[in-house]
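Dear colleague,

As promised, here are the two records you asked about, laid out in our usual form so they can be pasted straight into your sheet.

NAME FIELD: protein one
SEQUENCE, THEN STRUCTURE:
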Amino acid sequence: MLWRVATLVGLLVVALEADQARSVWDRVYTEEQANRGEKLYAGRCAQCHGDSLEGVEAAPALTGPAFGDTWEGETLNALFDRMRTMPPDKPGVLSRAENADVLAHLLRVGGFPSGDAPLDSTAGALVGIRLLMYRPQP
């Protein structure tokens, strides 16, 4: 019986989150967070993905049209989960907070606006934010 109640509550939460859908255009990270992420990216990611996130050899671009083709409409949680498998030789070397900082850097380089609240690294928060390459019309 208790598991049924928990399942119903979970479904209700998902439904409510869908009604409150946000996108990367909703200022979901801070400049300070992106600055930390830029430093982490330079030290941990740039050797494979390039200094400008353009991609190098087998490592994909993390900005631009190719990135958009892959990630358009996906949740930040999906991208975050992929980031957590990097680097291939040492997956999970960055903490959740550090990955959120790197993700904030990616968003800033992609031209998405910063805001007053840092990007929350919990799956529940990230699943409610969609990556949309173009600003939605009001």
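NAME FIELD: protein two
SEQUENCE, THEN STRUCTURE:
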Amino acid sequence: MVVGGAALLGGVVLGVRTHMFMERAQSVPGTVVRLESYRDSDNDTLYRPIVQFKTLSGQDASLTGHGSMPPSYDPGEAVTVLYDPRDPGDARIADFWSLWGATAALAALGILFIGITSGFIWAARSGTHHKQHLKANGTPIKTELIGVERNDGLEVNGTRPWRITSRWVDPASGEARTFHSENLWFDPTEFLTARQVTVLIDPRKPQRYYMDISFLPERA
């Protein structure tokens, strides 16, 4: 959340600075005189345009645009340049990515991080509420303990959590159901001394359940 907020704030600051730049900038024609190649941190080759232009006072100036692959411009291509009349060295090609690219990237990164973090917080709170509701109102059933398995659908820092698995046959329908405990970050095998484990089923939504693992130590 902190990283996302910082990125979003950085995007806002850059956006304000870009807006202020455009408020005072002068617009003049420019020409891409050549493309300059370089390698980025991933060792990919990118090309950035070198643009020459004249200020309104007749001063020769140049700017280096942002790199891309394939190149965004061709040598000899005409472009519009925005420059600060107080500092002609502060100049940009008048296109979206040159003006707003960094702002958009930081804002998108901030929104993404905040969205992911908010999703985790919501899921955690929802899971806690769901568990408490079932503990208070769920219908308990005794299920046959099958054993312990690793949850291959989740991995954190190279480690997959364990979960207890049990089975139950509905006496009314004859349907067999398999239940899983919540994710456990230690192997609970040594604590499984009984052949049965209690599962609490939501009477209104039978597909919702919670396996009672209160017999495990506190680290669960």
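A couple of things worth noting about protein two: The longest helix spans residues 96-137. The chain has two domains: 2-105, 138-211.

Best,
R.
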